[in-house]
């Protein structure tokens, strides 16, 4: 059954129980790790309809997005408020399922000690790097992708051999309840627990000593998490957000670029995604063409009345709806709307909205939008965009559309971001061989694939020596000859060692 909400004392007891189980060594074995990863994979397969229903309840998420982003393995899915949808495009990576499969395939190799070189100074010797679990870890997930952002870190934590507490977001209550109810049926509750609740429960959890904390969300709460972790010197993995820019150059395939911007912005939870394009920078000359293309493609995708489209997620709750409305009502930008702006508060529906030439000191440009609003800033030369991006905080993602090879190299070298994508948006999240994480205020640490295993593992240095080869040089009395030889050994020069042995400097 699901975990009950808990206070500080109950949280302390929970951590104590998990620490005792971890201390027994149960979660360290390859067999246990593999069994839990297989159970996670089975959970996603068995409960696909339950997951889709939860996402529909929390976010009114289109079924295609559920399949692609949350990894539901279905070809035909039926919905309470949606018609039957046949999914044909299965070429897209089902990220959560692939995370489990990759971990199962590579786990033995990941767990194997990594050989390390030694030097002549310590001859004869050998060394290796051993990946050991941190211990008992806390994962606090986000509401916008409640299954992917909850379970993808859990895959890494389990693969690394940790005991885990998962705290799903209360902002997605149906998803949180489902995780709490069903994961206990699939996973070993002596090592993996789910805690529901809101601020009080999260606070109680953060008051405990953990061996690592992973938090996905915004920078404000990220600071609270980091402050709590600092009291126990607990390492943190913070996946935050920021204002992810899209730089659009001229001389490109405009229709393809526009479609990919739309897919990354409105096709990702209606802009409610940490890697969603936050604003566009393009030249004054090219802006009219880009705007016309955006309008045309948006109408193709979502119709003349996007508020009626079944392919747009709703805003998660009334608080976020009010926040987005406030951004649009700002007197500095209210007259800058050139497309969209329609909204329905009763249904929490917000149409794709484009704003042109918004002031950089406006409210919409001072915080992460996290919604369907897309401001466009114009410059004389596309290269000016680099200074605009770098003048703000470092984003989680930065996107560039160009056919200019020199501009591509300059963008990659100049713009600091968690990840950079050229000629697409958001797609890097699905590449398991790339780390996913932020830099600066967009986060610290990274996960996905092997990076998830590494994120929840301590890389322990192990050094082996025999009793032979014991040199008097390291022991008193210290002489000039010993010093010369020691310097030569540290320097690693064979000729230097020979000269030192013969008493030459």
Automatic annotation (TrEMBL):
Belongs to the aldehyde dehydrogenase family. SUPFAM superfamilies: ALDH-like (SSF53720). GO terms for molecular function: aldehyde dehydrogenase (NAD+) activity. Keywords: NAD, Oxidoreductase. It catalyses: an aldehyde + NAD(+) + H2O = a carboxylate + NADH + 2 H(+). It holds the Pfam family Aldedh. One of its GO terms (biological process) is response to water deprivation. This is Aldehyde dehydrogenase. The active site is at residues 239, 274. Residues 109-462 form the Aldehyde dehydrogenase domain. GO terms for cellular component: cytoplasm. It comes from Ficus carica (Common fig).
């Amino acid at each position: 059954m699901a975990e009950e909400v808990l206070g500080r004392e109950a949280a302390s007891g929970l951590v104590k129980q998990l620490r005792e189980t971890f201390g027994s060594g149960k979660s360290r074995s390859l067999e246990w790790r593999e069994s839990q990863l297989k159970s996670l994979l089975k959970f996603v397969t068995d409960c696909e309809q339950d997951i889709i229903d939860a996402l529909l309840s929390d976010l009114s998420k289109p079924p295609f997005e559920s399949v692609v982003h949350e990894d539901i393995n279905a070809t035909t899915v039926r919905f309470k408020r949606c018609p039957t949808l046949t999914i044909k495009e299965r070429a897209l990576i089902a990220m959560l399922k692939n995370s489990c499969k990759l971990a199962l395939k590579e786990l033995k190799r990941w767990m194997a000690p990594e050989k390390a070189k030694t030097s002549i100074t310590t001859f004869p010797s050998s060394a290796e790097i051993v990946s050991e679990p941190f211990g008992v870890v806390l994962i606090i997930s986000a509401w916008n992708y409640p299954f992917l952002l909850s379970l993808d870190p859990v895959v890494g934590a389990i693969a690394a051999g940790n005991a885990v507490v998962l705290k799903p977001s209360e902002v997605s209550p149906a998803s949180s309840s489902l995780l709490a109810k069903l994961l206990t049926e699939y996973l070993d509750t002596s090592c993996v627990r789910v805690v529901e609740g809101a601020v009080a429960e999260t606070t109680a959890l953060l008051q405990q000593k953990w061996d690592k904390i992973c938090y996905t969300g915004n920078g404000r709460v990220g600071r609270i998490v980091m402050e709590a972790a600092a009291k126990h010197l607990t390492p943190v993995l913070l996946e935050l957000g920021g204002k992810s820019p899209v730089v659009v150059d001229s001389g490109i395939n405009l229709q393809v670029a526009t479609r990919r911007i739309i897919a990354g912005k409105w096709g990702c939870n209606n802009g409610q995604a940490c890697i969603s394009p936050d604003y566009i920078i393009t030249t004054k000359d090219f802006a009219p063409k880009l705007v016309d293309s955006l309008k045309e493609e948006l109408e193709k995708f979502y119709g003349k009345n996007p508020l009626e489209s079944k392919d747009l997620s709703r805003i998660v709750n009334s608080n976020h709806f009010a926040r987005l409305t406030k951004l649009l009502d700002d007197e500095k930008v209210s007259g800058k709307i050139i497309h969209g702006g329609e909204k329905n508060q009763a249904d929490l529906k917000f149409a794709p909205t484009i704003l042109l030439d918004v002031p950089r000191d406006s409210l919409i440009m001072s915080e992460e939008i996290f919604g369907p609003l897309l401001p466009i800033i114009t410059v004389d030369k596309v290269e000016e965009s680099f200074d605009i991006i770098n003048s703000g905080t470092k984003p989680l993602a930065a996107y560039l559309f160009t056919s200019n090879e020199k501009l591509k190299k300059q963008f990659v070298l100049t713009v600091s971001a968690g990840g950079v994508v050229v000629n697409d948006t958001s797609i890097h999240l699905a590449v398991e061989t790339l780390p996913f994480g932020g830099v600066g205020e967009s986060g610290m640490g990274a996960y996905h694939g092997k990076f998830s295993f590494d994120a929840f593992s301590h890389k322990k240095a192990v050094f082996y020596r025999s009793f032979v080869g014991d040199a008097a040089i390291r022991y008193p009395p210290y002489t000039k000859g010993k010093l010369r030889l020691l310097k030569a050994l540290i320097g690693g020069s064979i000729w230097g060692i020979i000269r030192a042995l013969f008493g030459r400097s």
